[in-house]
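ok so dumb question maybe but i'm new to this and my supervisor (M.) told me to 'just get the structure for Protein ImuB' and walked off. so i did the thing. is this what she meant?? sequence i used:
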Amino acid sequence: MRRTLALPTLARRLDALPVALLPQAQPRLDWLHDIGCHTLADLRALPRAGLQRRSAPDLLQALDAAYGQSPELHRWIEPPPSFSRRIELMDYVEHTDAVLAVARRLAEQLGGWLAARQLAVRRVVLRLDHERGRHARPPTELELALAQPVWQAPQILNLLREKLGRLTLEAPVIAVALLAPDTVDQPAASTTLFPEPGGTAADHARLLDLLAARLGRDQVRRPCPTPDHRPEAANSWGDALDAPQRAEPLPATLDRPFWLLDPPQPLKLSGHRPQYAGQALRLMRGPERIESGWWDPALTVRDYFVAEDAARARYWIYRERDDEHARWFLHGLYA
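this is what came out, is it supposed to look like this??
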């Protein structure tokens, strides 16, 4: 496969391309089409002085660069700033309390570094280096994944204290390093005149970070709405520290109970009427027909109803429609 072209061949290939492929031509595409300029060859045929007066210099620069008549300038890739500090210990350390004292110094250095650059972090790694040589062991790494960007040293130190409090050192520590590889711009801080009931979003994020550090990240979950018509699949549990995904609100006409049974409970029939706890249920609303899941083994073909018993307690029940004999199930309870 040829990967290079001679300039005359390159020019012929480029001449046939539509002018819309040139990014710098996009803002002036309607004007170019109005004057009959549809290809790069048409664009090159226009008087350069007039084209420069009626457009912008970047259009001619991009055209010349495409044809190899001028150098193409690219912006350098600039990785985001990252923090890395390491402190060698004077002697072997076998207790986390001594490690925490060193981590405090590193957290203060990180806080000052972030404040000076107006940055914040979403992830922090505390690395504990062990003995090298014949008895070398891989470093122990404690990762802090944060619900929101933070930059205050006390908050970072509190989370490190929780992590170290749950750690049992398997080998003596000879050095402690603190790494912040992912930084973001520090969000503008805004305060309110009066305390907000229930706390602010930052308070909630700090609570999530503390729970994740104390219990483990996999133990702190949040409900995540899923675009699925099947009630049991419309919700899932996700990582509480991940940014929640935006979900479309349910139609106001949908009447859903807050308590769903997992799995749904089979109902007995008496005179073709479903019964629950020995009482016949009266169908108040429905059916709401749900047919979904044909793409996976959990195919759902149901008719949902809102039912009441003699005490006017409401239930969300459904009838399976894929069987010859109707089967009824209790799927949810209303408050």
